[in-house]
């Protein structure tokens, strides 16, 4: 499934299946074919996602402190795309929608 997040005042943001679902769950929303983040919900969604970033950063720091070995395989040494990187366009959408006073929808 592809999640295309729309706001009438902002550019759309698209995520593929599991990434979109993960972001919605972390935001406190239920993934599904259709949904909405109302203007009133935007501050809570923003706070939840920023809290998730802080937790991920703390977990990453703990792994680095433990000396998490990368091994000899150079491909295994490449870290996955971090949540912080994935959320950059979503935070931009949240900010734009909040400033415009418009809801964010997907699947509608």
Please state the structural category.
Answer: alpha+beta
Number of helices: 3
Distance between the termini: 14 Å
Note poorly predicted spans: none
Q: How confident is the prediction overall: mean pLDDT?
A: 89
The tally of beta strands, per DSSP, is: 4
Q: State the share of residues found in helices, binned by percent.
A: 40-55%
Strand order of the largest sheet: 2-1-4-3
How large a portion of the residues is in β-strands, by DSSP E?
A: 15-25%
Radius of gyration: 16 Å
Based on CA inertia axes, which overall geometry fits? Answer: globular
Number of domains: 1
Order of helices and strands: EEHEHHE
Tell me about the largest β-sheet: 4 strands, antiparallel
Walk me through this protein's architecture.
This protein starts with a strand and ends with a strand. Helix 2 (42-65) packs antiparallel against helix 3 (83-100). By secondary structure, the protein is of the alpha+beta class. The chain is globular. Helices cover 48% and strands 18% of the residues. It has helices spanning 17-26, 42-65, 83-100, and strands at 2-7, 10-16, 35-37, 104-106. A hairpin with a 2-residue loop joins strand 1 (2-7) and strand 2 (10-16). It has a four-stranded antiparallel sheet with strand order 2-1-4-3. The protein has three helices and four strands; from the N terminus they run ββαβααβ.
């Amino acid at each position: 499934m592809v999640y295309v997040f729309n706001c009438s005042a902002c550019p759309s943001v698209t995520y593929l299946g599991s990434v979109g679902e993960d972001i919605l769950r972390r935001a406190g929303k239920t993934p599904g074919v259709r949904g909405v983040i109302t203007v009133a919900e935007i501050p809570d969604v923003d706070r939840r996602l920023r809290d998730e970033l802080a937790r991920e950063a703390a977990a990453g720091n703990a792994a680095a402190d433990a000396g998490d070995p990368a091994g000899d395989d150079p491909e295994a040494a490449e870290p996955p795309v971090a949540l912080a990187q994935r959320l950059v366009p979503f935070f931009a959408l949240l900010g734009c929608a909040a400033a415009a006073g418009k809801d964010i929808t997907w699947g509608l």
